Amino acid sequence: MKELPSSGSFSVRWHHRVLTCRDAFTDSGAELAQLFGDSSSPARVLCVLDGGLTKAAPALPDRIAAWAQTQSDRIDLAGTPLTVPGGEQAKNDRTVFDQVVRAIHDRRICRQSFVLAVGGGAMLDAVGLAAATSHRGVRLVRLPSTTLSQADAGVGVKNGINAFGAKNLIGTFAPPWAVVNDATLLPTLTDRDWRAGLSEAIKVALLKDESLLIDLEHAAVALQNRDLDVMERIATRTADLHVAHIVHGGDPFEISRARPLDFGHWSAHQLEQMTGFRLSHGDAVGIGLMIDLHYAALALGGSQSLVRRVASCLQSLGFPLCCDAMSDHDRLLDGLERFREHLGGAMAITMVTEPEHSQEVSSIDRDVMRQAIELTVRRGGEQMSRTG
Amino acid sequence: MKELPSSGSFSVRWHHRVLTCRDAFTDSGAELAQLFGDSSSPARVLCVLDGGLTKAAPALPDRIAAWAQTQSDRIDLAGTPLTVPGGEQAKNDRTVFDQVVRAIHDRRICRQSFVLAVGGGAMLDAVGLAAATSHRGVRLVRLPSTTLSQADAGVGVKNGINAFGAKNLIGTFAPPWAVVNDATLLPTLTDRDWRAGLSEAIKVALLKDESLLIDLEHAAVALQNRDLDVMERIATRTADLHVAHIVHGGDPFEISRARPLDFGHWSAHQLEQMTGFRLSHGDAVGIGLMIDLHYAALALGGSQSLVRRVASCLQSLGFPLCCDAMSDHDRLLDGLERFREHLGGAMAITMVTEPEHSQEVSSIDRDVMRQAIELTVRRGGEQMSRTG
Does the residue A111 lie in any domain? Predict the structure, then answer.
């Protein structure tokens, strides 16, 4: 076997740009338009909106059309905004993916043109996959519209849809052109969706920044009272830690290493599947963190006081700590293998023992994990009996 | 608008490895197995075969199974090889894509496991998209089984399927783990498929290496007589020039620039579409080269003797220089706009005026292009009346 002389290595450079603003399409409208390029010729932009968002904010499509008009030296809106279903159903089949690919084709969006997607994490995942694969990649600007997507997936470099019963089976790594976190998209969220980003905030705080955990503990009342300034601060800090991991962590496309940012997620993903996504991702992550913190305390000498501290914090933010599906230990534990398969290679689960102290474990003692699940359920049950 | 402190640039490094061998699964079997990793634990491998190939070489699946058995310290074959349809139908809908994604899921292929795809360019494109998007990318080893795929697309970093009537509408850039060009896969090809890689060889010779053009001119009789050594030499040189462009050309994912390697392809793609893919890609590229060489001679002062030289070379290799669809100038010229859309941005067509001398043009004089089409048809007609 002979290697061609020209075989060799090459690098591709990406710029990952995440910004924050308020009132993206009005007060920040000029700055938003500038992200799409210079004013020599307007950028062609297909706008895709999350149906859940437009239901809560029916004036949004008109606001976007008005923005495009005032910024017409930079923005050439390709038809009226396309509204697609939001929530997990956006990525549970190929309907949204196909709608967006077809619109990219019909409305003549090319590799130098843009998709502007405004919505929650699931919708951004499906639209992102369509943008990343149409013409092998058109430019994507994301405006995540939930606390969860502003703190976590919406500011990352991945997309995906579910297939054959497997979460995110089909997807790519595709850095967006830009991400804009607009806090003024958040006030219409339900309570469940309002808190959803906060379990991811706790996760990243446990992994990387205890001061964020302290901030969350102190801010619980304000957050329960839906203080937008506080939420914006928490989401921005969480997003920044997430982006730092991607930009400075050395393996943005997860080629060689497992994913520390998936702490607590093996059980969260499995519980979402088991409940047919009735359990939200935010709530599932809260439970997932508790299970793995209990495990770390039982099996790895992790801090017991940290377990109590995080449980209190989650509860004060309104998170449930148990759900019925947790009684099926066997099926829940199957999530470990599913998680390994999706990441690939040997098992590698990140466990936190103290704030900012984590380790990767390559095997899980299933009996101890059952105990961890039970302890999480017990604490959750106490909470329910106190509140119920 | 405020940028997050962690926003910034990152690079991802890829290794693009293309090798040549004979009898990959027997004489070169040990070296092939070594590509899949070290012998500490065998790599899990899903093998996908082109149905056109297994029809011509029915012993291939057994040969691969035997190879995996003798290399069992390195190779863990995930079930019997999956055979999928080859040819353009492989990428004209999502059947093959879905079959492969489902097999990756069912047979537990993870991001550290492999898909080994053996087949022609269209099949490799569809299987490659499935591999690149399943779990956001499992490792792909390609064995292109045609002269066209060994010389051109099979050694590149792209994949794609057609959708909504548009060629390669859905695809990604995804460097394969390795590509192995095995000349012993070629002798069963039909005459049309045997010559198909040679128009791409002429293309790359015109752009980058006149000595390859001279080699092709001298080798015409041997190639018509199906001399495998000569074909291997031509395909290897063509592949090497193609890979050099990717690895050393500075824009492997075509983010900023148009594609010089698409010389002659705007009309080739359109003629394939217009004929419902009855015209092969190889034959279409031959015609496409002639059209653009004529255009360059008429509009850009290109060499007339080069036009005659390439026409003679194509004809001596058995290529037709015209087809019925060329009489519909308007529809053929629509291919210019389709091509621009797929690449994105302003029109940028590469034109060759002398060997190794090309220029990018940003507009096309449609009347002159009609003449160029007519001149190509006329030469092709003379050829047909001489041979018919």
Answer: yes
pLDDT in tens, B296-351: 999 999 999 999 999 999 999 999 999 999 999 999 999 999 888 877 778 889 99
Q: What is the mean pLDDT of each run of 10 residues along chain A (388 residues)?
A: 97 97 97 88 96 96 97 96 96 97 96 96 98 97 98 96 93 98 97 96 97 97 97 98 95 80 93 93 97 98 97 96 95 93 83 96 96 94 66
> Is A168 close to B134, i.e. CB distance below 8 A?
no
Give contacts of A134 with chain B, Cβ < 8 Å: 169-170
Cα-based angle B222, B224, B227 (whole degrees, multiple of 5): 45
> Are residues A199 and A154 part of one domain?
no
CB–CB of B172 and A19 under 8 A? no
CA distance A82 to A45: 11
Interface pTM (ipTM) of the complex? 0.94
CA nearest A184: which of A227, A149, A224, A228? A228
Q: Which of A11, A164, A173 sits opposite B105 (nearest CB)?
A: A164
- Indicate the residue of B7, B170, B252 with minimum beta-carbon distance to A134: B170
Distance to chain A for B169, nearest Cα, Å: 5
Q: In which residue are the tokens 């949204």 written?
A: A96
Separation between Cα atoms, residue B285 and residue B321, nearest integer Å: 10
Q: Do B14 and A14 touch (CB under 8 A)?
A: no
Domain that holds residue B73: 18-188
**Which of A32, A241, A345 shows the shortest C-beta gap to B111?**
A345
Provide the shortest C-alpha distance from residue A268 to chain B (in Å). Answer: 18
Q: Last residue of a domain, which of B173, B188, B203?
A: B188
Please state whether beta strands A349-354 and A178-182 pair in parallel, antiparallel, or not at all (unpaired). unpaired
Q: Let me know if residue A11 belongs to a domain.
A: no
Q: Is residue B239 part of a domain?
A: no
CB B6 within 8 A of CB A247: yes
What's the gap between Cα B231 and its chain centre? Answer: 16
For residue B262, give how far its alpha carbon lies from the nearest alpha carbon of chain A (Å).
15
**CATH number (domain holding residue B159):** 3.40.50.1970
Nearest by CB to A344, from B8, B113, B247: name it.
B113
